[in-house]
Structure of Amidohydrolase:
Amino acid sequence: MEASATKKASKFNHGIIDCDVHQCVKSYDDLKPYMPRVWWDRLKAHNATLPFLLYRPIPLERSDAAPGNGLPPGSDPEFAKADLLDRYNIERAILTGNLLSISAHNNPDYAAALASAFNDYTMDTWLPSDERWLGSIVIATQDPLLAAKEIDRLGSHPRVVQVLMTSGSREPYGQRRYYPIYEAAVRNNLVIGIHGGGEGDGINPPTTAAGYPTTNFERHNILAIHHMSQLNSLVCEGVFETFPTLKVAFIEGGLGWLPHLMWRMDKNFRAMRSEVPWLKYKPSEYILKHVRLTTQPIEEPDNRELVQMLQLMRAEKTVMFSTDYPHWDNDAPLFVLNKLPEEMRRRVAYENAAEMYQLQERGLLAGGVAK
């Protein structure tokens, strides 16, 4: 979290792979060359993606991460390269964008066009600026067939490693209507990333299971329920049986809930497995094999309790590092990684992500060949 720490150079004994960096456009006008003219007027709206329903007293991005000249934080790849990659000696960083309400639009065609334009802008502006940037294909999930076409359109790009969805959705992601997305991800050998966003916005269900909260503080405290719900759905609906090579990263959803969910799912599986005859293994086994989580926003109990929590969730296997740059609550690497035991630190900082995204096999680590 420490924003002030980002202005100090840091040294770290291991390589670092950052699994969540939010790039954005300088202006929505930047997307016009990539979009049908019919959507240009909509880009002029106060918020061309989707207005937030709740007042949020803290701006989403850190002001000290702005590149200057009135540009928004995360809009200049050269500034972000110096402010993040160089400062912390980050070997690779996966771009996740800022279209965090993309799957809450009532108009699936506009949402798909916006996602496609943003992807092309990222490919043209960010990826060529430095080999350390890796790309995600942002999709709108309202129309899974359009989403699958977008994955196939860009999935062969050598620096693209992930398909990005948001945790806010009309229905849980385990349901079969979303299968075209998973088929396309597997076909293109890409990880599915599920990032927080769109909960309670637009066409999506309320922010909480009990309705809409009064404050952003209340909302922010329970955002992890959406990641829990999506993971629960993917496992119980048998997505990992249908797509045995599929990998899913849960991004910016916290960590502490995972042991509880695995315990509860395994317990109930013993009593109610007749409802899910397609599951051949305990739910926790699917999770440990197919699912990874990112550190930010990591819970901050006493450090001894934090390590215990990470041990319970097999963090040396399941957790990948992320900064969430340039969001207001982003984490500098040393803030998180220095809390971990040495053997866990190396896995979380680098190795879990390298394995999850097959970076060595793709030639995307130092000395690789992909361009």
In short: The first helix runs from residue 40 to 43. Strands lie at 17-21, 92-95, 133-138, 160-166, 191-195, 248-251, 291-294, 319-320. The longest strand covers residues 160-166.
